[in-house]
Each structure stands twice: as C-alpha cells, then as structure tokens.
C-alpha cells in the first residue's frame, strides 16, 4: 500500500477480517489500493437501502448481484433467513474496495454470513463458487439496482452458470432415514471453519440436511430458538466446545454433539454431564477418561478428508513442505520455584520425544530419575495438568522437527513465527495459504509433505494426514500408534519416530521419486476407500441418532 492511500478505522477493521477469511481477495484489494490510491466511495442512496423479501420454502441460498453499498449489504443480511447461505457477487473490485471504507462489515465477513465472489471473469467465478462447497438445493436472486443495471450482461451469464455448478456437486448417497443437523458456527479460526464445511458436505452427500447458525460471541436466545423452531433439527452439532452452553442446549430438548479436535478436558467440566450430550473425540485415549469423568455418551472418530476439495492436481513438482502454525511462542511457566520449572521442562522434553507415551508414565519415570515426589490424586486436576503440559510442549515439538529439516530447505506456510527459524538462510517462509484452492495444489506438488501432529493427539492423526494422501501427495509423518490402523506403514504412508529417522527417510525419499509416487498412489486409494468425511459423519450419525 502506498503512502498516498488514506485509510480510516472502518477500513482497517474490515481489511483485517478479510485477510483472515479471504486472504487471496485481501491481497487483490491491497494491490488495487496500492496502485490506485484510496477507492472512491459510491454515495449511499438517500434514504438508505431497505431490503425485505421472503425466500421460498426450501430455498437455502441467496445470491446478491452487485454491492451498491455497505448499507445495502447489511440490509440484505438482516433480512435474509438465518438458515440461508448468502453469496455476494460484485464484478468491480474497485466498488468492493470502496464498500470496505463505509461501515463495519467485519462480523459478516468473519461470521460465515456472507461469501464474497469479486471478479469480472466468469471462469474465475466458477472456481471461487466451488471453493465454498456448501450444498445448495435452490437459489433466490437479489439484484442490487445500481450494480445490476451497470453490469446486467455479466450477471445474466452468472445466473445461467450457477445451476450447472449446483448440479455438478457430488451426488448424494441417500440413507434409509435422513436427519436434520443444526451446525453451530463460532468466532474466527484457522482450521475448524474448513472442517465444518467438510462435515456439512459429507452430511449432504449422505442425504441429510445441515443448516448453520452463527452464535458469534454469544447466543441471541430468541433468534436461536426461532431457528430451532424453523428447521426442527434432530441434533445440534458443535466442533470442540464452540457453542457449548448446556443450560441453553438442554432447553432444545434434542441431542447435541461435540466433535473434539483437541484435549476435551481443556473445556469440559462436571456441569457439562448430560444424557443429551454426546462427545466424539479424535483420539481414542480420551474415551475411558471421559467415561470415568461421568460422561455417558463418548466415542472415537478420527478426522478425515473431503475428496471434493482435496484431490490430485496436475502441477509442477515443488520441494519438501510443511503447512501449519509455528507455535513459536513458548508458553510461560506460572511457577516461581525453579525446581518446578525444571520438572515441567523435563516432562515436556520427554513428551516431545515420544508424544504417544502416557504423561503419567513419563512423570513416574522422571520422579525416580530426578529423586523428587510428584503426584496428583484429583482426576480433574490431573487432566488440567496434562492439558497444560501438552500445550507447553507444542512449541518445542514442532520447532524441533523443523530444525532437523532445515538442511533440506523446507518451504513453510503459516504464521510469521516460522521466520525465526529460517533467518540463517535455510528454508523459505511463504506466508499463509488458501485452504480450499492453494493447499490441495501444494499437497499434490510437494516432493515430501511433512505432518507434525500436536502432542495432545497422543494416539491418532489430524486431518492433514488424510488430506495429503487424498491429493495423491507423499506423506512423511511423525508416528502415532493408531497410524497402523489407518494405513500400511512404509507402503501407503511413511512415519518417523526419532530425529535421526526423520533425516534418514527425508534423504532417501528425496532421491527415490518412483518409491514416493507408488506410496502416494496406495495412500490415495486407502483414503478414498476408508477415510473421507462421509465415512466419519456416518459413524457420528449412528452414534448420536441410531
């Protein structure tokens, strides 16, 4: 952005939200303003736009043709039914940039309320529309008077194009009985919004219905219960603890389920125990602990891949890569005594070397070795301590693995923390990557895709370990015991247990492309056959409703 461009507080708030949710679009807005200075703001019509319309029964997508002003956009969002998806299409990038100066749209941008497609090219529209991958049964069109009149021919072409994009979606696999899910959306995040999109796509593929409700920073009680009354869900679906307020969810009188992608004891308390509450964990080692804590309905379902997004691409080969947060900032230890800090660090170091080893076993061995006494009898405090140590160990674990790979000049994607590791000229940091468009291409192109599992997954894998093979990418992952039930090791994926093994296998597979390609092919076939989100959601449906 050049010095001649003048920004106001409203633009900075909107642009920050845009960078998080639509990084590619944010770059285009930034480049436009750098070249053209501040966008001229189109005058808001007086009186302001007022939009009132009824979506026909069953129509679950509203496409806005043109964005006359921020006021118009807010008016449409306020008028649209809560269950409907909104896609805002604007041909002119300059008009969209101007709107970002007018009113605070950050809540709409970050809250899944509206998806933006800003482009004058019809083919580009098609690519952007596909990346959102939500199931659309029928569409209502809203035409912004000013924009539509100026670009009528363009929007007519888009009107014709949309039905073909809807029809081309993955055919549904209709089950004997279908159910209605109400999926809760919370505040912004880097990973869970995409996983939620994949869950929704899988439910539709299985023949079920899925509606979304954005709770933002808290529940709007009247609106939430109106939504429940309108869509009449069979189950409320949460990721982790997003939206987990038992006193509200219990009032619906229907089952609710959390699929935890982290240590569930970071959030769960004794007051959350309920016959209506169902818990799904991505790591089976938490199942017995949750039962012991009194939760009656607990099961294990690992993550997976959405093959409609993550599929093989024909792209030029790239070097070894890793995509993920750096977790570079080490957590502070809240203890004044140096002896306690030393003990925590030793537990953390051991956990980094073998994260699948139970923490209680690590503690028992270290207390003998260090000649100290340490025990926690209270099960709640025990789980809290375990979660604390796992969180503390995350930074050192991820940092240590990447340091071993610097000699291979890895390409790193994620937050700027990675720049602290590549300052000596080894490796390359490329910023954040678009999950729906760029990431599948990277997985397909990389000679070696590294997977680094967070320590709180003691036994299983994250979604990365399934999405890479789904793109027919070669996967080199840190070891977890459950990996052997997902894949045939060294035949479908490759794992390492130590730093030496990591370096040796990286060197070998860097120089043996045919071995890499054969392993990647077999890994792809396994994921498609057993590890898609349709497989996972089928298990969750059976667990909660059957």
Describe the structure using short key phrases:
546 residues; alpha/beta; six-stranded parallel sheet; four-stranded parallel sheet; 16 strands
Explained architecture:
The protein is an alpha/beta fold. It is 43% helix and 13% strand. It contains 21 helices and 16 strands. The protein has helices at residues 9-21, 23-36, 70-79, 93-99, 106-110, 122-132, 145-150, 152-167, 192-205, 221-231, 246-249, 285-292, 338-353, 359-370, 379-405, 438-445, 464-470, 483-486, 499-510, 513-530, 533-545, and strands spanning 61-65, 85-90, 115-118, 139-143, 180-185, 209-214, 235-239, 256-260, 277-281, 297-300, 321-323, 411-413, 428-429, 449-451, 475-478, 494-496. It has a 6-stranded parallel sheet, sandwiched between helices. α17 packs across α20. The longest helix has 27 residues, at 379-405. It starts with 8 loop residues before the first helix and ends with a helix. The relative contact order is 0.09. Mean pLDDT is 86; it is low at 43-47.
Mean pLDDT: 86
Spatial ordering of strands, largest sheet: 6-5-7-8-9-10
Question: Which structural class best describes the helix and strand composition?
Answer: alpha/beta
Cα distance spanning the termini: 56 Å
> Percent range for helical residues?
40-55%
Helix run count: 21
Low-confidence stretches: 43-47
Radius of gyration from the CA trace? 25 Å
- The coarse silhouette is globular
Per DSSP E runs of 2 or more residues, the count of β-strands stands at 16
Question: Strand count, sense and closure of the main sheet?
Answer: 6 strands, parallel
Strand content: 5-15%
């Amino acid at each position: 952005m050049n010095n001649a461009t003048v920004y106001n507080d409203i633009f900075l708030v909107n642009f920050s939200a845009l960078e998080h949710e639509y990084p590619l679009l944010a770059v285009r807005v930034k480049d436009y303003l750098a070249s053209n200075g501040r966008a001229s703001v189109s005058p808001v019509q007086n009186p302001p736009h007022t939009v009132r319309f009824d979506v026909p029964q069953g129509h679950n997508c509203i496409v806005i043709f043109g964005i006359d002003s921020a006021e118009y956009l807010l008016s449409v969002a306020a008028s649209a039914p809560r269950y409907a998806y909104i896609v805002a299409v604007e041909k002119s990038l300059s008009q969209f940039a101007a709107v970002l100066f007018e009113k605070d749209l950050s809540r709409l941008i970050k809250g899944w309320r509206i998806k933006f497609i800003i482009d004058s090219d019809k083919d580009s529209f098609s690519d952007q529309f596909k990346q959102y991958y939500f199931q659309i049964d029928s569409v209502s069109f809203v035409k912004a008077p000013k924009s539509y009149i100026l670009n009528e021919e363009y929007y007519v072409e888009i009107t014709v194009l949309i039905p073909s994009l809807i029809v081309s979606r993955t055919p549904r696999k209709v089950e004997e009985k279908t159910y209605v899910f109400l999926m809760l959306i919370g505040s912004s995040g880097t990973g869970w919004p995409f996983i939620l999109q994949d869950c929704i796509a899988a439910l539709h593929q299985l023949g079920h219905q899925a509606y979304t409700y954005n709770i933002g920073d808290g529940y709007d009680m009247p609106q939430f219960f109106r939504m429940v009354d309108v869509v009449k869900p069979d189950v409320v679906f949460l990721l982790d603890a997003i939206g987990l307020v038992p006193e509200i969810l219990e009032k619906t009188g229907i089952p609710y389920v959390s699929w935890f992608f982290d240590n569930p004891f970071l959030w769960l308390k004794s007051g959350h125990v309920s016959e209506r509450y169902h818990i799904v964990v991505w790591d089976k080692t938490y199942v017995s602990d949750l039962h012991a804590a009194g939760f009656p309905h607990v099961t294990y379902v690992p993550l997976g891949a959405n093959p409609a997004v993550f599929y093989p691409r024909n792209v030029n080969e790239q070097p070894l890569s890793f995509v993920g947060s750096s977790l570079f900032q080490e957590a502070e230890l809240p203890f004044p005594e140096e002896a306690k800090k030393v003990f925590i660090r030793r537990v953390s170091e051991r956990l980094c070397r073998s994260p699948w080893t139970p923490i209680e076993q690590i503690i028992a061995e270290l207390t003998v070795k260090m000649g100290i006494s340490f025990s926690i009898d209270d099960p709640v405090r025990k789980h809290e301590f375990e979660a604390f140590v796992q969180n503390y160990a995350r930074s050192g674990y991820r940092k240590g693995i990447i340091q071993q790979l610097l000699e291979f000049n890895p390409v790193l994607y994620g937050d700027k923390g990675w720049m602290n590791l590549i300052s000596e000229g080894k490796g390359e940091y490329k910023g954040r990557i678009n999950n729906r468009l760029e990431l599948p291409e990277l997985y397909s192109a990389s000679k070696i895709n590294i997977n680094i599992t967070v320590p709180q997954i003691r036994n299983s894998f994250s979604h990365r370990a399934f999405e890479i093979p789904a793109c027919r990418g070669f996967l080199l992952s840190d070891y977890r015991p459950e990996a052997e039930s997902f894949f045939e090791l060294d035949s479908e994926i490759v794992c390492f247990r130590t730093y030496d093994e990591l370096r040796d296998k990286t060197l070998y597979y860097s120089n043996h492309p045919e071995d890499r390609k054969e392993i990647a092919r077999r890994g792809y076939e396994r994921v498609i056959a057993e590890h898609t989100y349709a497989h996972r959601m089928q298990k969750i449906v059976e667990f909660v409703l059957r």
